[in-house]
Amino acid sequence: MATIHISAEPGDFADVVLMPGDPLRARYIAERYLEQPREVTAVRNMLGFTGHYQGKRISVMGHGMGIPSISIYATELIRHYGVRVLIRVGSCGGLRPEVELKDVIVALAAGTDSRVNRLRFLDNDFPAVADFNLARRAMEIAERRGQPVRAGSVFSADLFYMPDVERLHATLVRMGMLAIEMEVAGLYGVAAEQGARALALLAVADNLPLGRELSSAERETSFDAMIGLALELAAEEAAAVAPQP
Ligand code: HPA
Q1: 82 CA distance to ligand 1 middle (Å)
Q2: CA nearest 194: which of 67, 18, 73?
Q3: Is residue 147 in some structural domain?
Q4: Ligand 1 pocket: which residues have CB below 6 Å?
Q5: 67-81 vs 184-194: helix axis angle to the nearest 10?
Q6: Residue 216 has what pLDDT?
Q7: Pick from 104, 86, 47, 82: which is nearest to 191 by CA?
Q8: What's the number of domains the chain is made of?
Q9: Which of 2, 11, 51, 187 gives 34 a disulfide partner, CB atoms 3.0 to 4.6 angstroms apart?
Q10: From the alpha carbon of 181, which atom of ligand 1 is closest?
Q11: Residue having the nearest C-alpha atom to atom 5 of ligand 1
């Protein structure tokens, strides 16, 4: 049966789902990288596809912008479709000069100004952390591929257009954060609440202190490098979650 926001049938999603923010990116990943991709949902044009990568069944679905949006899709995928592993593949703004454009960040943990995890956790501070084995595997795959990645914490902001942004950025840098984006803390909270595993891989699309940003062509190529890593991770996880013949 469909959910409010996803029209797929039970069994339409694989155990492992890659999640870009933009649904057209989901279509791009499915059409470019998956064998025999099939569209399984398109409610509100939030497209989802299932196909195979290196013989392993994998899905890809957009999650939209911001914690409320990713929380809806992640919750329904886990609760109603039995998804076990969610891998966000997104972009972020680098907070430090040395976090360069095109770098890929493995988001080990996320701070946030959102209250969503407090709502779930009796108003206490919830540690929004990645699944350790996913993060470890991502680092191992990156090493094997000779692909440099940075592992560290990020900040998930509710507002893209934020007042007093210089003060916030200075504080985030002082507290060791690499980048800012808008979803990871929500995804990690949902995964914990719903008993699934999650990781976010983030391509640096802007360098905020240096005021630099990627062109749209450069965004595509750096996105492709990150997707290559994410797909290998997804295929390894798909084999581990449900050993395939
Ligand atoms: N802020 C929030 N999210 C982002 C940014 C940013 O500067 N860049 C890419 N995603």
Answers
A1: 30
A2: 73
A3: yes
A4: 91-93, 157, 160, 180-182, 205-206, 208
A5: 30
A6: 87
A7: 86
A8: 1
A9: 51
A10: 3
A11: 93
Find the 243 Cα to ligand 1 centroid distance in Å: 37
Ligand 1 atom with minimal separation from the 157 CA: 2
Strand partners, 131: none
Amino acid at 1: M
Residue 222 is predicted with a pLDDT of: 85
Q: Residue 20 is part of which domain span?
A: 16-241
- CATH number, domain containing residue 158: 3.40.50.1580
Does 113 fall in a domain? yes
137 CA distance to ligand 1 middle (Å)? 26
Minimal CA–CA distance to 103: which of 152, 62, 70, 137?
A: 152
Active-site residue, 158 included: no
In a domain, 5, yes or no: no
pTM listed for this prediction? 0.97
> Per residue of the chain (245 residues), what is the pLDDT tens digit?
799 999 999 999 999 999 999 999 999 999 999 999 999 999 999 999 999 999 999 999 999 999 999 999 999 999 999 999 999 999 999 999 999 999 999 999 999 999 999 999 999 999 999 999 999 999 999 999 999 999 999 999 999 999 999 999 999 999 999 999 999 999 999 999 999 999 999 999 999 999 999 998 888 888 999 999 999 999 999 999 876 55
For 27-163, strand residue ranges (E) read 35-41, 48-53, 56-61, 85-94, 104-112, 149-156
Q: Whose CA is nearest to atom 4 of ligand 1?
A: 181
Q: Name residues whose C-beta falls within 8 Å of residue 25's C-beta, 6 or more positions apart in sequence.
A: 62, 89, 223
Q: Considering the domain boundaries, does residue 10 fall inside one?
A: no
Q: Whose CA is nearest to atom 10 of ligand 1?
A: 92
